[in-house]
């Protein structure tokens, strides 16, 4: 395993046209020095599979993937906002970061990419999972060490369609966040999510314009007001972390599990209360499309300690039943 930190300036190629300096699209006018790190993981790594859970829809302003295989992430770290670009080159990960949070992001890079994960603890009890695990050796469970950046979008996803939640996250981050630091290509339009105080100052009509009802908005406000206590959960054991989050009215097992799966890398955090997951797991493990949460947990009993990983592998297996339940109805709060 090797690592390397070094500042680097990003060169900008310009042309002069009619006496005016023209900067190509996607290139910053002022070069920005970034910190770099090269890290060689001692295991197979698939960046797309590993970092995929961080992406809240194709237009997520805090996460982008580019055609060259790079993943860009804008985060609000304990040291301030930062932008991280990660790419897998041969067997090594090349990373570059900008902003006040750059050093923190690079320091946390191995945890983000699954160093603290232990997939060897997973023992397949079904052929489907054994085959999927064999075909996906590069899947690692992430550990971001950041709670609010996963908690707030998870609250937005409560009781609405994913499209509605992704739209709300996109609109709120772009309007009340700040542009991601560093030479982020202009076409990516990346932003760092608002700080806790800014979340609490968003006017009620802006929540409504984003399609967020009062219940979800109030839950976010309650969490933002005790942001420091929420962030402490990242250093806790998963069950303790979930209990800490669920002290906030409006945060239940579904939301806490969705959060600590990302912030704490929790391999056993099962998403209960989901509209479709029980049926998917029931169909994959017992050919039962009608499974509820209780039946889902029973079927996952052999994977105690690794139930979240088992669910991820099932979702990646391709054995998904044809949807029979009606989808979550769209709800336009502007018509109330």
From TrEMBL:
<dbReference type="InterPro" id="IPR011257">
    <property type="entry name" value="DNA_glycosylase"/>
</dbReference>
<feature type="compositionally biased region" description="Low complexity">
    <location>
        <begin position="10"/>
        <end position="31"/>
    </location>
</feature>
<keyword id="KW-0227">DNA damage</keyword>
<keyword id="KW-0234">DNA repair</keyword>
<dbReference type="InterPro" id="IPR051912">
    <property type="entry name" value="Alkylbase_DNA_Glycosylase/TA"/>
</dbReference>
<protein>
    <submittedName>
        <fullName>DNA-3-methyladenine glycosylase family protein</fullName>
    </submittedName>
</protein>
<feature type="region of interest" description="Disordered">
    <location>
        <begin position="1"/>
        <end position="41"/>
    </location>
</feature>
């Amino acid at each position: 395993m090797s690592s390397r930190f070094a500042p680097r300036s990003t060169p900008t190629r310009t042309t002069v046209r009619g006496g005016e300096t023209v900067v190509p699209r996607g290139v910053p006018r002022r070069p920005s020095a970034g910190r770099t790190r090269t890290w060689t993981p001692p295991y197979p790594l698939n960046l797309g599979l590993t970092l995929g859970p961080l992406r809240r829809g194709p237009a997520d302003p805090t996460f982008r993937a580019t055609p060259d295989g790079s993943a860009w992430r804008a985060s609000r770290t304990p040291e301030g906002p930062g932008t991280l670009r990660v790419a897998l080159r041969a067997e090594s990960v090349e990373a570059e970061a900008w902003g006040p949070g750059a050093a923190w992001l690079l320091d946390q890079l191995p945890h983000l990419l699954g160093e603290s994960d232990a997939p060897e603890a997973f023992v397949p009890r079904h052929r489907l999972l054994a085959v999927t695990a064999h075909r996906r050796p590069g899947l690692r469970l992430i550990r971001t060490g950041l709670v609010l950046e996963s908690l707030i979008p998870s609250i937005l996803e409560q009781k609405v369609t994913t499209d509605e939640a992704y739209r709300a996250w996109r609109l709120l981050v772009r309007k009340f966040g700040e542009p991601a630091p560093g030479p982020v290509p202009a076409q990516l339009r990346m932003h760092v999510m608002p700080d806790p105080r800014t979340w609490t100052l968003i006017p009620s009509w802006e929540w409504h314009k984003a399609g967020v009802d009062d219940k979800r908005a109030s839950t976010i406000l309650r969490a933002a007001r005790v942001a420091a206590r929420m962030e402490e959960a990242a250093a806790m054991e998963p069950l303790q972390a979930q209990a800490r989050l669920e002290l906030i009215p409006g945060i239940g097992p579904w939301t806490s599990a969705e959060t600590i799966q990302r912030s704490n890398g929790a391999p056993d955090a099962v998403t209960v209360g989901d509209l479709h997951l029980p049926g998917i797991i029931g169909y994959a493990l017992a050919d039962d499309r009608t499974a509820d949460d209780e039946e889902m947990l029973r079927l996952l009993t052999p994977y105690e300690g690794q139930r979240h990983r088992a669910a991820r592998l099932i979702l990646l297996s391709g054995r998904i039943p044809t949807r029979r339940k009606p989808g979550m109805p769209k709800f336009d709060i502007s018509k109330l």
